[in-house]
Design brief:
single chain, about 200 residues, alpha+beta, eleven-stranded antiparallel β-sheet, 11 strands, about 25% strand, disordered N terminus
Length: about 200
C-alpha cells in the first residue's frame, strides 16, 4: 500500500507540474444562454459567440473576444495595453479594447465587475464611448466552475466506468483523472467540462 501511495504522489506531482492545456472558452457551462451582458448604447455583448474563440476565465485573468452586434469585437486581452485581470477572489480589473468603442474599464469608480463562487458575473463596466455595461442581467455571463456536484458526478462516473470520468481521454478511468479534477477544483473548468 505504501508503494501505491508513493507512486500516486509522483504521478500527481508530475501531472500538476506539467500543467494542462487551456481551452478556448469556458462560458455558459450548462448551455442555457448564460453568456450575455447588456449595454444601453451597444446592445448585447456575447461572451460565447458562434464565431471566434470566445472568452476564457482563469483564476488570474479573463482573455479572449466578445462579440457585440453594434460595435463588433471586444478584445479582453489586448497586447499593447490593458487586459482583464482576476485577483483570484473574482474581482476583475483592467481594460478591454473595442476598435469601434475604445477602452472599456472593468473596475471603474462606482462600478466594477465580479465573478462569484458559481462563476456568475455581476456588476458594471464602463466604456467612455458606450457608457455602462451591465453584467447583472437575467442569464448573465457565467463561467464554468468546479463544484461539489462535479465531485459527485466524478464519483458516480468513476464507479460505473463511464466515459465522463475519463478526463484525459486515455480510455482509462484512473488516478490521473482524479488529479485533473483536483487541478480544476475551485478554479475555472475547461470548455465542454464533461462533469456538468
Amino acid at each position: 500500500m505504501n508503494t501505491y501511495i508513493k507512486s500516486f504522489s509522483v504521478i500527481a506531482f508530475l501531472f500538476f507540474s506539467a500543467g494542462l492545456p487551456v481551452s478556448a472558452e469556458n462560458i455558459d457551462p450548462y448551455d442555457d444562454g448564460s453568456q450575455y451582458a447588456w449595454s444601453e448604447n451597444a446592445g448585447w455583448l456575447n461572451f460565447q459567440p458562434a464565431q471566434g474563440s470566445g472568452v476564457h476565465v482563469s483564476s488570474d485573468s479573463v482573455e479572449g473576444f466578445v462579440w457585440a452586434e453594434n460595435i463588433g469585437w471586444i478584445n479582453l486581452s489586448p497586447s499593447s495595453y490593458g487586459g482583464i485581470e482576476n485577483d483570484g477572489s473574482g474581482n476583475l480589473s483592467g481594460f478591454a479594447w473595442a476598435e469601434n468603442a475604445g477602452w472599456i474599464n472593468f473596475a471603474p469608480t462606482h462600478g466594477g465587475v465580479t465573478i462569484d463562487a458559481e462563476g456568475e458575473f455581476a456588476g458594471w463596466a464602463w466604456g467612455e464611448n458606450i457608457g455602462w455595461i451591465n453584467f447583472s442581467v437575467l442569464d448573465a455571463v457565467q463561467a464554468c466552475r468546479v463544484c461539489n456536484e462535479d465531485l459527485l458526478n466524478m464519483a458516480d462516473n468513476w464507479l460505473s466506468g463511464a466515459a465522463q470520468a475519463d478526463l484525459n481521454n486515455d480510455f482509462n478511468v484512473d488516478m490521473i483523472d482524479c488529479a485533473i479534477l483536483a487541478d480544476y477544483w475551485l478554479d475555472y473548468c475547461p470548455d465542454a467540462w464533461p462533469l456538468k
